[in-house]
Each structure stands twice: as C-alpha cells, then as structure tokens.
Amino acid sequence: MLSRCERKGSAIAGITYTSEPLGVRMIGLLRLALFILAIEAVFYGLLWVYLRSTRRESLEREWDRRHPEKAGPSEERAAFVRRFMQGYGARLRRRLSWLVLVLPLAVIMTIIFFVNYR
Amino acid sequence: MRYFLTALGVIFGITVFLFLDYALPSKQTVRITNTYNRLTEVGANAIFFAAPDTGTVQSASDRRDVLFIDTVRPNGKVYVYRNEDTGWVWPPYFKYTSMDLQGRATDLRSTREAPRWVSVTSYGWRVPWLSIYPNAISVRPVEGPDVRPFNWGATVSLAVIGLLLALILRMWNQFRERMLEPAARSAQQRRQVARGRAGRWIDRLFGRKDG
Q: Is A8 within 8 Å of B57 when comparing Cβ atoms?
C-alpha cells in the first residue's frame, strides 16, 4: 500500500496506480468463489428434487402403461418406482455435480476472455 | 387490495427493467476524442462507480483517480465514458485490464476532420447531474458511423435469464402438482369426513358448495 505522501504525490502528478497488495485481490476472489458456490448449492438442491420428481412421475406412468388393469397408486407400483430410482439417483448425482461445478466456471472464463482479451 | 398488488407488480417490473438496463452491456458507435484520468469526487453517487478496492488510488476521503474516455456520437453530441476495473462480484464483467483498454482507446483517437469510428461496449448510465458515467468494457474499430454491431452480450444474457426463469417455473409447477395438490385434496377429504352429514347440511345452508 502507498504511504500518505506517495499517494498525494501520485495524485498531484496525475499518475494512476492500479496494482494493489495481493491479499486484497485474493479476498475478492474468495468472496466470489463462496458466492458462486452458495448459488450452485441452491440450484443443485432444487434440480435434485425436481429431476427425481419428474423421474418418479414418468416411472409411475410407465407402470400404469404396462399394467393398465393395476393402474393407480399401489404397493407394487411403489416398489417398482423405488427399485428404479436407486440407479437413477447415483447417475443423477454424478451428472448434476459435473454440471453445477463446471458450467459456472466455463461461463466466467468466457466472460473474462471476451471482456479482457479481445 | 387488487390495485395495491397491481401497483406493486408494476413497480417491481420497472425496477427489474432499470436494473437490467444498467447492468446489461450496450453498444454505441462513436468517435473517440480524448482519453485522460482525473481526480474525481465520488460521494453519494458511489454505487454507480466501482468499489474502492478495485485498484484506483483514493487520496482524500472520497476523491478517486478515474480514467475517462471522451467520445462524440454521430449526431454530434458528446458522450463521456469512465474506464474502471469491475469488482470481483458485481457487475459480473470481471474486467481487470482497464489500463490496456485506455491504451487502446488512446490509439484510436481521431479528430472531426479525419474521424475514426469505433464501437464501444459499455454498461451503465450517463447522468450528468449525478456525475455518473457508463463503464466502457471494450472498443473495436468499425467502418463508419452507421455501422452498429449486434449486441450479443445483452441478447445472450437475456436468453439465459429467460431460460432460468422458465426452469424455475417448471420446478414450481412440478412441486405444486406432486406435493401441494395431493396434500390439499387429502386435507379436504379429511375435512369432509370429519364434518359428516350435519356439516354438509350446514354448508348448504350457508351457501358453501365444496366441503
């Protein structure tokens, strides 16, 4: 950081001083990372619930389609849905983690490229 | 009550529009006349300038050294940009090469007799009585004063925002369909069973059709 005399001197000379201690920049980066992670956690949670809900609904409809005489809520249908939801859960976790971690990073990199290096 | 909600909705809509109008990038074809830096007083209008920790020196309490780019529009009106690094969080432009931009703008200066037209991408408002200036993001030369490149940044941003809103709407509808409506239905059924025939007779007496 500049001392008071240095700052006054550069102000008089009209020089712009645009670098600053690494610590200040790093804290800014940390704030950004935490902010992004918080939003991503929210979206991860929302998408988790939403996608599992749609999957459950489509499984129920599939069951009703295969067994039209036994359509409607029943213990068999619930067991069917439960069994197929297990595999889906593992796949979904992998895909969502990848999407939710990689996508914002890619977007930020693109913005930085277009703003600063074009 | 309805008028109040409508008014609230309108105010909300206007706020969102103003917010987007400030933060989304816009392009203008101008001719750069001068680039310089100046010690500027940043007081009550500080929200329209970059955060104090983005790298410019702050000598007294609220005077800051700010880079400016003077331009002239094709209709002859003057339009002044500032050129500051953005903070790390908002607006999400992640701009940290404002000195390079200043150098490039200086290189593209021209005079009225021999104009060199450039397209400046910027965000923010120019409001002279508030002393606020739009923040220039990038400049690139164009062939003439009538060339207006398409504003990809704002279009893509709005499309992404629209998609996110559509996604949130679908999630809400799914939640309502799977969680809220069955719960409401079963609550209604339980209410009907609990009240019994006397309850239904009372309902009919007082004009309520459902249970």
A: no
